[in-house]
Write a structure and sequence with these properties.
This protein is 31% helix and 14% strand. By secondary structure, the chain is of the alpha/beta class.
């Protein structure tokens, strides 16, 4: 096989190079407070709702066992059922949010329920990865979560601001914190891309490398490496 045909066989259409979701920049919203530690993925979306691969419609089942009674009636005391909770885009929780099984349906359900970010003391690693890959930003603030809880109890309608570019979350005048996020995930969220989209965004550089190496017939590590001289 020639080097040219090898490049053509593996070509990916530039038409695939498109954002898979809206770019994540900044969110300012009042929040919903579920002030518990160790909220696991089975509480976020119970296993009986995992029979679908469709994301749409999972939001109504988010926190189903806490949100509804045995007859399916909404529990008025659960924060997500409060009238003022409608339209809020930030969820605030405790420590170790998203522990338990690695079901991707958990961030899907939160996103379908209208949330764009979760603020917590800490997150389970797998949930954090799944959430950020799907466009749900995880904001870990450590011990400062106690101050956020305190201020939300005092002022339930107070607005929380999350700026991904500066990696700052602010919840009251003079009360803000930096949060960590790896560079790849941050860039993907800012551009509204998943891993494949990030790869395709580099297509011009990949093509330039291929053109340069296609002239090096049989060069080790080139496109034609291992081919017929």
């Amino acid at each position: 096989m020639s080097t040219t045909s090898a490049v053509e066989v593996h070509r990916i259409s530039p038409a695939r190079n498109a954002a898979v979701r809206a770019p994540w920049r900044k969110v300012e919203s009042a929040a919903v407070l579920v002030a518990h530690d160790d909220i696991d993925t089975d509480q976020i979306i119970p296993a009986r709702f995992l029979t679908t691969t469709q994301r749409a419609g999972l939001g109504v089942h988010c926190f189903a066992d806490w949100r509804y009674d045995a007859d399916g009636r909404a529990r008025t005391e659960f924060p997500l059922n409060a009238p003022h909770a409608a339209g809020r885009r930030i969820l605030v929780a405790g420590a170790n949010f998203g522990c338990g099984s690695s079901r991707e349906h958990a961030p899907w359900a939160l996103l379908d329920a209208g949330f764009e970010a979760v603020v917590a003391a800490s997150f389970a690693d797998i949930f954090c990865s799944n959430a950020n890959r799907n466009g749900l930003l995880t904001v870990a603030v450590g011990e400062q979560i106690a101050d956020i809880h305190h201020r939300m109890h005092a002022a339930p309608d107070a607005v929380i601001s999350i700026d991904l570019e500066s990696q700052v979350v602010a919840w009251a005048p003079g009360h803000a914190a930096q949060f960590a996020i790896d560079a790849f995930t941050k860039r993907a969220l800012l551009h509204g891309l998943d891993e494949l989209g990030m790869l395709l965004a580099e297509l011009p550089s990949i093509e330039a490398w291929e053109r340069a190496h296609s002239r090096e017939s049989g060069a080790p590590g080139g496109v034609g490496a291992g081919g017929t001289p």
